[in-house]
């Protein structure tokens, strides 16, 4: 990690096989249901470009896939959102016989005052991923109404205002 980089890590247990979760990480249509409008070239060195849908004030993000180990790991380095890595670990259990522990590590260079916002963004996005996998993609037009309350709770829990 470079000096000044903050690492955030989040773990979620998802009641789905890793192949299903991994698809939601690299398929542009599925990414649009939980994270952002995406252009993805699903190979190492391929593009991973995101246009954020929750706010027009967020500039688009240009990224490159630095690791694609389907369905175990995805690592993306971006121009303005740092680096994020998803590690998927299957285990027996759940309603479908296999659950996935998804660990999301985010390395970002940002003023310390903004770390709670980054944490809230990722926690909220991971909620949205779980919702998508359960058949409920984000209704971006009504994001404020439907999801901003949870985002504010994550912000407060992370020490933000």
TrEMBL record:
It comes from the Bacteria. Signal peptide: none annotated. Residues 17-133 form the Activator of Hsp90 ATPase homologue 1/2-like C-terminal domain. Belongs to the AHA1 family. This is Activator of Hsp90 ATPase homologue 1/2-like C-terminal domain-containing protein. It comes from Terrimesophilobacter mesophilus.
